[in-house]
């Protein structure tokens, strides 16, 4: 049923889908829920504390969700609307020319699904898939990603081994840097001036395979015009400690998010303490805030 609904929605023009998504997003935000409180608190933590910003951000979250129908099931048309600068494409080509696979980190910013589809058309790409909390979405997401030509691996040790093999074969991989990892798979590191339990896998893979780490996002353009890709490489070499590595990646991610902050998923519970994880350290000094 859900697959049928997404295919049906994909027939709508992109501008209509995004506009409808913004309307739904703002309506959901108008309800007095924990989601509304969390969105406002997380945005304010980063310095975006106006109610108008929060409403726009909620609208963009709605657009992020509904545009997936078009991205997943009208892929060729969607990819034709992607803009990527010659300078950024040359940067990635130069990394491949060195015989290195690229480790892409795609935060929940703009249309994060379009980035992988754009990259896999140019170079082999493996992505990690963690089933969503709503199980009904899992088969739709899995089908959509596999049909795009990318290799999909599970979020476990088997998937990690597949990532290592891909990078050693100079292929690219992609993963999310802003999901709270499971117990033992992260460290506490500053994110917009507050400690967030942050993934350590990207840095471990990069150091193990000499892969460059590049943050990438697809900024949603007005009036259904498509998406502008942004690339921000993480400075090399990476620091030695996991905490310093996670801090550097989070800082790089912050700089990317600030390019189009209203399109970030502020409603995600980024500052939660995963079950079994150590308690977060004390408050950061005020100078570390965004």
What does this structure look like?
The chain has 290 residues and is α/β, with parallel strands linked by helices. The chain has a domain at 82-271: 3-Layer(aba) Sandwich (Cobalt-precorrin-4 Transmethylase, domain 1). The protein contains 11 helices and 9 strands. It has a 7-stranded mixed β-sheet with strand order 1-9-8-2-5-3-4, with helices on both faces.
Brief descriptors of the model:
two-stranded antiparallel ribbon, single chain, Cobalt-precorrin-4 Transmethylase, domain 1, alpha/beta, 290 residues
Brief write-up:
By secondary structure, the chain is of the alpha/beta class. The protein has helices at 2-9, 14-30, 34-45, 51-73, 75-79, 86-97, 112-120, 138-147, 157-168, 201-209, 242-257, and strands at 82-83, 103-105, 125-129, 151-154, 172-175, 186-191, 194-199, 213-220, 227-233.
CATH class value of the domain at 82-271:
Alpha Beta
| Backbone CA Rg | 18 Å
Calculate the mean pLDDT score and round it.
Answer: 93
Count of strand segments: 9
Neighbour order of strands in the largest sheet:
1-9-8-2-5-3-4
Tally the helices.
11
Helix content: 40-55%
Major sheet description: 7 strands, mixed
Alpha-carbon distance between the termini? 43 Å
Order of helices and strands: HHHHHEHEHEHEHEEEHEEH
Q: Low-confidence spans: pLDDT under 50, at least 5 residues?
A: none
Keywords: Acyltransferase, Cell inner membrane, Cell membrane, Membrane, Transferase
GO molecular function: acyltransferase activity
GO biological process, one term: lipid biosynthetic process
Subcellular location: Cell inner membrane
């Amino acid at each position: 049923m859900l697959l049928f609904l997404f295919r049906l929605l994909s027939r709508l023009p992109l501008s209509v889908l995004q506009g409808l998504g913004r309307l739904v997003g703002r309506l959901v935000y108008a309800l007095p829920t924990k989601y509304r409180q969390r969105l406002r608190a997380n945005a304010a933590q980063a310095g975006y504390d106006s109610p108008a910003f929060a409403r726009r951000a909620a609208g963009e979250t709605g657009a992020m969700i509904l545009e997936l129908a078009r991205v997943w099931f009208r892929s060729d048309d969607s990819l034709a609307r992607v803009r990527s600068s010659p300078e950024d494409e040359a940067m990635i080509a130069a990394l491949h020319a060195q015989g290195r696979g690229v480790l892409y980190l795609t935060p929940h910013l703009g249309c994060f699904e379009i980035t992988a589809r754009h990259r896999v058309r140019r170079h082999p790409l493996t992505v990690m898939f963690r089933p969503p909390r709503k199980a009904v979405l899992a088969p739709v997401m899995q089908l959509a990603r596999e049909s795009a030509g990318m290799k999909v691996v599970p979020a476990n040790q088997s998937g990690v081994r597949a990532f290592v093999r891909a990078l050693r074969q100079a292929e690219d991989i992609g993963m999310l840097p802003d999901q709270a990892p499971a117990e033992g798979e992260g460290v506490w590191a500053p994110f917009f001036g507050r400690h967030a339990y942050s993934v350590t896998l990207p840095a471990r893979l990069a150091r193990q395979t000499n892969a460059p780490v590049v943050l990438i996002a697809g900024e949603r353009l007005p009036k259904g015009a498509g998406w502008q890709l942004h690339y921000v490489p993480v400075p090399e070499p990476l620091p030695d400690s996991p905490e310093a590595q996670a801090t550097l990646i989070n800082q790089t991610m912050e700089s990317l998010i600030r390019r189009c902050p209203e399109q970030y998923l502020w409603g995600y519970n980024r500052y939660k303490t995963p079950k079994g994880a150590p308690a977060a350290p004390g408050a950061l000094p005020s100078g570390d805030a965004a």
